[in-house]
Amino acid sequence: MDAVASLNKVTQKNAEQRQATLTKPAGSLGVLERLAIQFAAWQGNDQPQLDKVHISIFAADHGVAEEGVSVFPQVVTGEMVKNFVRGGAAISVLAQHHQATLEIIDVGVKDFPEMEGVIRARAGNASNNIVEEDAMTEAQLQLALEAGREAAERANVSNAQLFIGGEMGIANTTSATAIACALLGVSDAAELTGAGTGLDKVGIKHKSAIVGAILDRYKKELAQQGFEGDNQVLHLLRMVGGFEIVALVGAYMRSAQLGIPVLVDGFITTAAALVAIKINEKIKPWMLFSHCSAESGHAKILSTLDVKSLVDFDMRLGEASGAAVVIPLIQQALALHNNMATFAEAEVSK
Amino acid sequence: MDAVASLNKVTQKNAEQRQATLTKPAGSLGVLERLAIQFAAWQGNDQPQLDKVHISIFAADHGVAEEGVSVFPQVVTGEMVKNFVRGGAAISVLAQHHQATLEIIDVGVKDFPEMEGVIRARAGNASNNIVEEDAMTEAQLQLALEAGREAAERANVSNAQLFIGGEMGIANTTSATAIACALLGVSDAAELTGAGTGLDKVGIKHKSAIVGAILDRYKKELAQQGFEGDNQVLHLLRMVGGFEIVALVGAYMRSAQLGIPVLVDGFITTAAALVAIKINEKIKPWMLFSHCSAESGHAKILSTLDVKSLVDFDMRLGEASGAAVVIPLIQQALALHNNMATFAEAEVSK
User: Fold this and answer.
1) Given A29, A31, A317, which is nearest B28 (Cβ)?
2) Does a structural domain hold residue A293?
């Protein structure tokens, strides 16, 4: 595996020093100061810029949808992929608003045809129903990881300064919840199971039971086979992950190797980030967590990772929308860092 | 007094209905949905826009600065006014970033000369030291209120869709803290006294004692004279307010009359908002609270007003910077509202 890129400590230090000279009380720009310093370290640039954002949405279907864990039918995954391409979805509007690159990658949408505007990198035709069997084969796992890595490579080729991964896949909070429970050592699935796209109490209880059944199957196999370390994490991913979640893991890992900071979106992408960090903890310093979603398990993963999201807007849409919303926050942080006058320049008493 | 403008319930309803038809799970855009609906109600427009933001920074000096309640010398108020005009301050950078109108109004900066780019509306030459005497005369109070109202009038003439008030004035958190204590019925000044621009523990303790002395003088006079209702609030403002805080109150009140929504900034502006709401509670529905600052009393005023700020970035700079930072959040909310496809348009199953 390639090494994760290093942060530039020199430009980080320079940015810290510059912040202390700008015409404001020290520390008074709070989060905005920390963002500017972080980008200086990532970019190796005393005056970091953010005008090229790369957004990759990975879409796939989930066999577990047949267990009735979502309020939307499975066909919506493919319908939304078309909506992404035609510009009608939330992320389409936000990407255009920010003039960001938006690419849609089919990593396993059920019966989805070739379509202009959709990158075809299918690891399968929907993952299997993870209550009953493993989500995918080892070969499919590798295909999905590669689909993610390729997205990061494309971001790199276009000199993107930020990578945002998003997902679309009816029933994928079920898969993400199972992953989170397994990696966080949460034995009661109800603790992390949320409403997804809008389940009521009864629906959440049913979904929680399904996640419990998935975990039971996983634990049983784990006890029999006894995987360790990285292999255990990848095995979990193969057993209960969806293709889009696996692709996100691959994209995050490759971004960190290429030195492209990652802005993590909501619950599902944070579960993917957790997987990537479990595989290699050096990836974590390349990640920025955008928002804390209304999905109940999200805050728990964030606190386990000991990270704080930038905003909390009560969002729960996925498709990278929560990450896209904080792009202007970063841009403002950098504009302030680069363009404010120093005390000396402005002749202001310090 | 002119009546506060009404919200348009028809366009509000239309916006609510439109949100329910957009291609996303109902409610999944959280705060962004609520912002779009709020702006539809304010603008009387089903498809609200935000491209004209008016930012007015009111600057004034405070006699109480001589009590050593700030880490910066009084001369910094005027120096920062020059920095605003020359484009080097945080709010200058943010206003330019957003192509917002930025105006600087001298309502009483000590010994400040006429200067191109600074609107001269001086109610006095710094307010008095409020530990010893009333901040200003009744005539000065009226002048400062009028300076604020005139800013709102200018915003209205230029068809601004949002009014942001900001302030600059060394020692003005002392004045704002005294106002907040009086209006919230907090008898222990320490409960609301914060670090301002960066006091240490000893400095905060001293400042807290100064605020306590101000409150003692206020209460004593109140007991003797027994003002009631509006008069009591205006009397408080005259006794302990700074010119810029009074101007903010005037600007907020006039904005609500003119039907221009107000985006409130940090601790000092929220104290001014509290005063305006105490004078006329109908002003409150025209206010949006941008951020919760690191100044310790801010959260307390927000909770007393029963409002939630949009973000919490640990900022404590003032000069409207916290409000300016959330402009893009509103713009994104409106872009999503206006440009997303409906389920019918996108042929997505609901």
Assistant:
1) A317
2) yes
Q: Checking DSSP bridges between strand A162-168 and strand A118-120, what pairing results, if any?
A: unpaired
Asked if B42 and B90 sit in the same domain, the reply is: no
B29 touches chain A (CB under 8 A): yes
Asked if residue B186 and residue B141 are part of one domain, the reply reads yes
Q: Is the pLDDT of residue B243 over 70?
A: yes
Considering the domain architecture, whether residues B125 and B212 belong to the same structural domain is answered as yes
Q: Looking at the domain assignment, is residue A30 inside a domain?
A: yes
pLDDT value for A188: 96
Same domain, A93 and A197: yes
Question: CB under 8 Å to A218, separation ≥6 — which residues?
Answer: A178, A182, A236, A239, A240
Residue B97 in contact with partner chain A when CB distance is under 8 A: yes
Number of domains within chain B? 2
d(C-alpha B262, C-alpha B152), whole Å: 10
**Domain range enclosing A150:** 53-327
Least confident segment among A229-238, A276-285, B130-139, B297-306: A229-238
Any CB–CB contact under 8 A between B68 and chain A?
no
Q: Which residue in chain A has the smallest CA separation from B170? A: A25
Contacts of A164 (CB under 8 A, 6+ apart): A53, A54, A55, A56, A100, A262, A263, A265, A320, A323, A324
Both tokens of A105, joined, read 């990658």
Task: Write the pLDDT tens digit of every residue in B105-125.
Answer: 999 999 999 999 999 999 999
- Is the minimum CB–CB distance between B190 and chain A shorter than 8 Å? no
Residue A132 is a catalytic residue = no
Check residue A50 and give left, alpha or beta (phi > 0: left; psi -120 to 50: alpha): beta
The whole-number pLDDT of residue B21 equals 98
Task: Specify whether A193 is located in the same domain as A303.
Answer: yes
Low-confidence residues of chain A: pLDDT under 70? 229-230
> Would you say the pTM of this structure is higher than 0.80?
yes
Q: Are residues B98 and B228 in the same domain?
A: yes
Residue B275 domain-assigned? yes
Are B28 and A197 inside 8 Å of each other by CB? Answer: yes
**Dist CA A242 CA A295 (whole Å):** 18
A3 inside domain = no
| Contact state of B341 with A89 under an 8 Å Cβ cutoff | yes
A14 shares a domain with A161? no
Percent of chain B with pLDDT over 90: 95
Report the residue from A80, A325, A346 with minimal CB separation from B329.
A325
Q: Cβ B25–A331 below 8 Å, yes or no?
A: no
Q: What local confidence, expressed as pLDDT, does residue A225 receive?
A: 80
Instruction: Looking at the structure, tell me whether residues B189 and B208 fall in a common domain.
Output: yes
Closest CB to B332: pick one of A25, A26, A94.
Answer: A94
Instruction: Kindly indicate whether the ipTM for this predicted assembly is greater than 0.95, answering yes or no.
Output: yes
